[in-house]
Structures are given as structure tokens and as C-alpha cells.
Amino acid sequence: MRxxxxxxxxxxxxxxxxxxxxxxxxxSVVLENRSRDYIENRIRAGVLEQGTVDVLNEAGVxxxxxxxxLVHHGLEISFNQRRHRINLHELTGGRxxxxxxxxxxxxxxxxxxxxxxxxxxxxxxxxxxxxxxTATPKIRFSHNATAHEIKCDFIAGCDGFHGICRPAIxxxxxxIFERVYPFGxxxxxxxxxxxxxxxxxxHHERGFALFSMRTPEITRLYIQCEPDxxxxxxxxxxxxxxxxxxxxxxxxxxxxxxxxxxxVTPMRSFVTEPMQYGRLFLAGDxxxxxxxxxxxxxxxxxxxxxxxARALAAYYQTGGTELLNAYSQxxxxxxxxxxxxxxxxxxxxxxxxxTTLFQQRLQLAELDYVTHSRAAATALAExxxxxxxxx
Length: 391
Fold this sequence. Notes:
36% of the residues lie in helices and 28% in strands. By secondary structure, it is of the alpha+beta class. The chain has two domains: 5-46 and 101-174 and 274-353, 3-Layer(bba) Sandwich (FAD/NAD(P)-binding domain), CATH 3.50.50; 178-267, D-Amino Acid Oxidase, Chain A, domain 2 (2-Layer Sandwich), CATH 3.30.9.10. Helix 1 (12-23) runs parallel beside helix 8 (297-318) and helix 8 (297-318) packs antiparallel against helix 10 (327-349). It is globular and about 65 Å long.
């Protein structure tokens, strides 16, 4: 086969990149090692920045998002048994966040890809990439027991943290920055009404908790736990008891409903520099991971492919490589800002195993400052709704 851009990975990054390229008349082939059913039902992030919503709407795939997404004008931070509201809308000049599951974004993008009859292969095997430092890089894979090779102008590695693209870059090219946190999140989905109309971030002596939602009837809940936590230790009764304790609110009702999904999310900060080698460009989780506290993972992936799509469009329109050459530098400015914000939110709200009483008091002092200083609250709000695109 021959195409202009070969895309490895059919998550939000790969599918959105393919869609943005198609709008520019640029051909692509998308490869995914999982089934369509798997990626459409894989529960991941659910908070979309204002800029992400704008990109999806401008790309023509936001119709269901506008209809079903839950727009939030603020969030709450709870500590010392009291809740404090951060008015995102007011502090950022009218910007908001939208709760809309990553799997729903994937469904919308898949539908657009299928309706366009554009090349998309699920359940591929033995994928490998070659000749990255030449003008014609190649992707080899098997599909339905048949071997294939795609000759490309460029390859986009959108295949996640455990994918094959980043390891294909020769040793010594990449510099890795990483921090692994000594805790994880036990996340559950429950058939219950959320206790609040807005997200509640809880700092508690027993550990962090987050009260969120996916729909008005489905609650998304998180509890700080050990990174290798055994789910067998968390029957439904214990989960609801712990959430009640960490919420610590007498004026809110925690509606206990059927829990239909449980999982433990490890916490990691990770950045690859650069995000490109030859004709290979990394995007999304293949290049960076953030702890979920700042709600930045999928939003960074959208920002990456927005920049990459524009750079590729400029190349095919003019032959210029300036934007492509600057891809890593352009993306990394936003990535490191998001890494810092996610680290700061994580450090502010979680109980670390080695935290001293002195450090606990510092956390509480900063929480008090953030919730009572307009300047500090504005900094949180600006980062949470997402910094405007400037590139």
C-alpha cells in the first residue's frame, strides 16, 4: 500500500489526526491492534478543556458532544470538612470545561472515519516501523493472517505509552523525564446520581478522593490507594464507606448505587524529548503521561495532533518543513506547563507516605490560599480549563 501519513493507534490522538488530515485532503491509513468494540468501551478521561471542545466542534465531530456533554462552570475543593468553589467561568473570562468520556470522543471520530470510507484496520498484529530516517518510511503489519507493508511520507506514532513507535527510535536519541508516584487511584463507575452538579476534589487525612460524573445518572468516583492495590480488598460496601468519609459533607447526599466497573490507575509523570525522529512523529501518550489529577491527558493529545496536522498541511501545500521541524519544541511548551500543573494538583491534594506534620500543614496553608485568593484561584482556573492555543 501507499499513503501519505501512516497512523499507528486508533485512540483519540490517531483518529483526530486522521480526521484533521482528511479535512485538508491528506490521505492516511490508521492501524489499531485492538478491536473496535474494545476501544469504543475503554473507559478513560472525561474532562475536556475549552480548547479541545473548540477543536472538535471546528472539525465537525462535536454534534453529539454539544448535545450530551455536561458543561461545568466551576469545581469544588474540599478540605477540613469544608468545600470551596472555584468559579472557572468567571475567573477565565467565560471559559468552561465539559464532561464527556474519552470513549465517546472515540466513537464520534470512528463514525466519521467509517462514514468517509477511509482506511482503518482493527486487530492488526506484528506491527513494526522501518526506514524512519528516509523519505519513505514503512509500516509492516499482519491483518487477517495476511502480511502488509505501507509506504508513507510520514508516520504518526499515536499508539500510547506501551506502543511500538517510541521504542523504534534508535538508542541515544531520546531523553526521558519521569516520576512515578507512590500511590494510585481506585476508580469506579456507579449507577447513581452524582452528589454535586460539579466535580469535587477532596484533600483528606485518609487520602485524596474525587467525585465526578459521566452522565446525570452515572457517577465516576476515585479514591487514593496503593499503586498495586488488590481490588479484592475493595468490596462495594468499603468503597461507599470510604467515599463518605473523604467527602465529609453533611449537606450532600452520596447516592449509593450499583458499581459496575472498578480499576486501579497508576500515577506517573513522563515526557519524551524530542517527540520526533526522521519522518516519525509521536503524539499523545506515546510521548507524555500526566497524573490524572489535572485532567490533561486527552487534552494534550488533542493539542499535539492539532499542531501536527497543521504542520503536515503546510508541508503538502508549500513543501516547507519549518513547522514540522519545530513540532517537538512547539508541543513541549504546552506539555511541560501541563506537567507542572498536574504535578502541583497531585502534590496539593494527595497524602504522601512520607509526609511529615510540617508538610501537611503546608498543604493546608496552600489550599487555604488557593481557595481564598482570587489571584491563586485564577491561576488554577486558567490551567484547568486549558490555556488558549497560540500556535
